[in-house]
Amino acid sequence: MTVTTNSDTNVPAVPADSVTVTVDGRAVSVPKGSLVIRAAEVLGIEIPRFCDHPLLEPVAACRMCLVEIAGQPKPQPACAVTVTDGMAVLTQAGSAMAEAAQRGVLEFLLINHPLDCPVCDKGGECPLQNQSLSHGRGESRFDGVKRTFEKPISVSAQVLLDRERCVSCARCTRFADEIAGDPFISLQERGAKQQVGIGDESSGSYFSGNVIQICPVGALTSARYRFRTRPFDLVSVTTTCEHCAAGCELRTDYRRGTIMRRQAGDAPAVNEEWNCDKGRFAFTYVNQGRLSGPLVRDAAGDLVAASWPEAIAIAAAGLASAAGRVGVLTGGRLSDDDALTYSRFARAVLKTDDVDFRARTASAEEADFLAVHVAGTGLGVTYADLESAPAVLLVDFEPEDESPIVYLRLRKAVRTGRTRILAVAPFTSDGLAKLSGTLFRAAPGEQPAVLDRLASDESTGLRQSGAVILVGERLAGVVGGLTAVARLATATGARLAWVPRRAGERGALDAGLLPGLLPGGRPLTDATARAEIAAVWAINAADLPTTVGRDLGAQVAAVHQHQADLSDGIETEAPIGAWLIAGVGPEDLPDPTAFLAAVAAVPFVVSLETRHTEITALADVVLPVAAIPERAGSFTNWEGRVGSFSTVLSGTGALTDARVLTVLAEELGTRLGGSNEPDADWAGARRAMESVTANAATQPGKGQALLTGWRQLIDAGTLQEGEPFLAATARPAVARISAATATNLGLAAGSEVTVSAGNGQITLPWVPADLPDAVVWLPLNSADSAVRSAFGAAGTAGAIVGLSSGGAA
Amino acid sequence: MALTPVITAHWDEPDSHTMAGYKRHAGYTGLSAALAKTPDEVIGIVKDSGLRGRGGAGFPTGLKWSFVPQGDGKPHYLVVNADESEPGACKDIPIMLANPHALVEGVLITAYAIRASHAFIYIRGEVPHAIRRVMAAVRDAYAAGYAGKNVLGSGFDIEIVVHSGAGAYICGEETALLDSLEGLRGQPRLKPPFPATAGLYAAPTVINNVETICNIPTIINNGVDWFRSFGTEKSPGFKVFAVSGHVNRPGIYEAPLGITMRELLEHAGGVREGREVKFWLPGGSSVPMLTAEHLDTPLTYEDIAAAGSMLGTGTPMVFDETTSVVRAVTGWLEFYKHESCGKCTPCREGTYWIVDVLKRFRAGKGTPEDLPKLEEICAQIFGRSFCALGDAAATPFPAAMKYFASEFADGTRAAANDLFDPVAATIFSGVAS
Q1: Does A194 touch chain B (CB under 8 A)?
Q2: CB contact under 8 A, A192 and B351
Q3: Helix/strand/coil for B91
Q4: ipTM of the modeled complex
Q5: Cross-chain Cβ contact A112/B352 below 8 Å
């Protein structure tokens, strides 16, 4: 439902600075400055409304909420009048004036509204329909010709507009202006011809789907959902978004085993009532390329279907034969419980500490930073803290692309005028510009130096109480970067938070899926920590590994070294006898080719996956697991807040990773009884982070540049498959370089530039940006810019790449 | 009551619009006099004069100025509402054509009083001839040292911007005007905050009508007592009345407030030969119509209100018995429908509906049930719309029904053009007969 009658976001129970008003004779105390309509909500009195939305500024345009206020000769809009002490309000229930005014407005709203409810997506959950029944007249007195428009028009590939249904409430246009900051939709023309229309056509928005949800009529509809179901045939489930670490609460609606749509949930502490288009529309992946059953490699070397008992037996035997030399790689997309089970399975069953959840650019410095500053620290910096912060510094973190709800909250903070945004980034992105942010420009590798300069800069506001530093996962690719961030936090006193990109990263970290780390931030090397975990897992502490294992990079390197030794005729035991791999996308790794070669080289590979991937193709045993909508669980978001999700698609028979691991453990002779998770985080001492010295700056030569980039929100990610409407709204892939760099290369405006590294090249249109000279920015995983697969190891951030004219203008 | 030309005193001189022509009659002496006083003294004088806004609402000008918070550290702005678009109103545009320097001098004094360093004159876009005159006057004022930095050595800095509207009646509504001036779609703003505290660019802003501003130099030069010697206690001063319609000499007549319509009609040469006043509107189409029985009502804010109408812009439209009330009312409503900004439901949808029904009456195809429905539609708009445009649109029909219900009843059987020959109502009808 889009009738927003909840009040907890805008009317906190603060009696300190309150005023007392009466609504329909009942007294209520509300905070000073509250709107009449909110005060009525506190009493449970619903005043009908269309344009009012608790998260948008009042506009008083629809006039549906007119009420009588004692002393005022004319009815007043309850959505725009603030309460004063002693104010006496009479709503439609107690005032003939208010009742008549509302009935009149509703009659006006309907004269030009089509009577197409039976075919309208909104029918059944429509505020106009509902309020017409509760406050309108039974029959229309209008006998003229209704206004019509061509229909529908596409506001974007996924948002369709039927203008004749519009009641000009301006919720969508205010959302675009006040919340998203993207003028993709706007009011046009005037009078009875006033209509919502396509705004700035060059402006897409990552948040456009919200306008569908807040439209109080069926004027804005979703291309994916349009005409496909009726709201009263849907079953709604509260879920947490699996796409990024923002932790949005969603409402997932399904019908007969198919997800029909997803909407933003009502989570004032997290996503308020918004979400991004990826979270809203990217759910069709569930049906893309799924594994239908276990697979095992037969004698001929082919993957063939197998029964669960057979596959489990083979997997267990393979893992057992490599005892002590098994690596566990889990990616960043597992639920909290699955991550804990992998952590436990690795330590308690496989007795290995060779675990890593970071299927991406990572470093030992990062593991150290995460273990010291993030793992098992519970709820830290929150969205509310961002909203009240005097200054927020973003370091290698582009919130609009990498955590869109963080972006929305930052924009909300900026609009109050209290919060200043600073960014250590290579250039002023659109997102940073929309946050009115200040750029502290850093070429790839320069971040530590820039951060150190900020530590001594008194003008940033970072020393003020409540200031926050948000560091993104990309900083792991910069030697000395996280050391410098920690140093800056210490120097300024600013609070520090780490915002990863994937939904499962924080949960995996808290689960201890890093070498040397046990659940709850416990150090593996600490005997007390081991004892605590052993007690929870009901095993002997002596059975836990005590030496710190190898991370993903070290494991891959060891495999390659072994291969090299073999080819040199040096016969040694394989350093990784078996890999247990779950949810790893090789395209996210710094060198996908090298990783896949390692997977091929490791003697035995067990892959737990939802779908066919390049890794399942190389595995010896493939065990299919449930996708997020097929099971219940939780994600821990970047704040450290746990968001649970219930099963949407039940009865698929798909097993969770945790269930499969439990069976596998039993096959290996260990019963995973008791609990996975300790009750409390590590309370013991935390060591200091080891300081890592930054590298000297790299100087590209002529025709070269340093590579930088990040993933755009909507790109070629596998969880976006099967949704062409969403894909069509992706920002076009462009290469960004400074104007001077373009001049040096002789690039004409509007022409293309070719970026080459390793054996690959990427040619894209270039656009100027305020980047340092000889730096090129590329989207890392877009349709025309798959940096990892094109460049391999030569395509990491900060690498020197070749730049040349791409030719065609 | 005799005419008392003040603002219009020298319009018969061919160079009245020039700096020379204006200075010949004590032009810009009001500015020097004002600069010799403190801003608060100037505000005090205007307050004491009792000058009321000439744009239609009649709000006391000095009081409006005093609402601007002083010493708040924000820039203050003066905005002149020269977007004269009300049907029947034609006084500001003639003033700007014939006496632009009075406007400029008034702007300078007002800006000084409210401590504004920027003034904007927002002129209706359809009158380029008036825009040119005002722009020339502003240029001349800069050249003469009356505007710009350190005006007349006083230390007062003022920049004047002449801005052209783009053809929207709603932009005469002061907050819509501010939005338009800021480059947005012209739609009225939510109040509070009022412009006096958060107007143009969210800074304290005074918005005054052209004629109001032109009164200021005369008050500064001649004093409060002189100003109050015209008009009545509650409506002091003189007024530029623009008389139009079925009169022999339509035009501008400047007279003390309190003159009656009958007197004003005499000055305008009376109603056309052989015709009688059927109805008249004191100040534009947005005020309720009155009839011949009200001709002796003094034209003051209070007396016209007591008679059931409003002085409005003080630009009486006079209609004789050749006029079809149905046709006139439908025409006005078509105007309001066209000019409704679309922001609020009652005005946007209500005007659409009223016109739909009124057109049927004009064509003789109304039904008896439509009349109470029309009155209800108007009641559903009046007092419920976002701004006064809706109220204005809801005014003509009920007012017309009060006096001419039978003509609407006739609209159920005969077309207005059959009952009232449109040619007979034109200025050339006498030529033909």
Answers
A1: yes
A2: yes
A3: coil
A4: 0.95
A5: yes
